[in-house]
Sequence to fold (374 residues):
Amino acid sequence: MKIKSDFNDLWASAKRMGEYRVVFDIKVNYSGFEDVDNGLSSSEGYEVDIGDIDVQKGVLSYEGRQVLLFIPDQGSNIDDVLSGKAEGKKFHVADCRTLDSMRRQKRFSRYKATYNISGKFQVYGVSFPQRVERKGEAGLKVCKNCLMYLNYRGYRSGSGSEKTNVYSNFDIAEFLSTYSTLFKSMPDRDGFEEAGTYSDDWSVVSTRYRESVSYRCESCSVDLTSEPGLLHTHHISGNKRENHSANLKALCLDCHRKQPKHGYMRITHDQMGVINKLRKAQGLLHSSSGWEGVIRIADKALDGLLRYYASRGLATPEVGYELANANDEVVAELEVAWPESRRGIAIDEAHLQAARELGWNVLTVGDALKSMNG
Fold:
């Protein structure tokens, strides 16, 4: 007997309570993704082969997961690295010139991949003059060439002090969150949540507060009445148990993840698309606000590119630009676009191809980064 179940009514009720449906691609890999994720989530990392590291998005990925690459062997410098007296060998987050050099020298076997956000890496080396092998966890620093390649937080065009600030305060969780829309596979969110617990009545408190502001983001002003699950209630102080209204702020998922110490949050490209569609329909997406407004509201994965274009004096683009075919059907949505010159940047591969078929010059984020560094 075949049993059919209709969950439409159940889903409709859940949606009214603030849940949001996300479609994920489930890929079966019999080599064991569980072992891969266990390795990638640890400070020890996962040994990878050069041919398996994907650099097409500009940032690094392995089996569809965004990763960092680091060298566990710190050589004779191991004592100073473990004690914190020396920074050690840098970890990589992008397809920078250092990695390109390593690739040409076929030295990728020295690297391990991880998406652990603790900032601690399992390293080893030989202590001299005792010639004793030592190992342990150390806090490594990010590669400056990677920051330059991505123009991360404006690093490329920043002053000396601004570059030092970006480098010194680099946060892995925040970095991974910035580029989360480029990936369909993301680590379990539970592993990224900040410390602290909500009060027992938090669900009721959150719902009532969002209702009190008519389900409108108090940062970008997007009305999420139709998608309440994409509107969060943020604790301004960071204390999850301080639920008085002065400490609460309704934020869409995009604005919420941009708050300090919220790098653990992830947003998919589909979720970002829904938010920007609503922003556009409500007249919140336009280029008249200048580059500052474009950078604030566009997908964070494009932040470095947009900061670079702004520094070069380019015209401000349209955010969330839709392209229609001859039948006036929307066939593509570009993250940003310059309609006058028929140029744009797209994250979704299908939308990119559809735009190109209409005669547009559209780049992926990875191709745009290559062009910026060309």
About this structure: The chain is about 30% helix and 15% strand. The chain has three domains: 1-30+195-260, 33-188, 269-372. The longest helix spans residues 269-281.
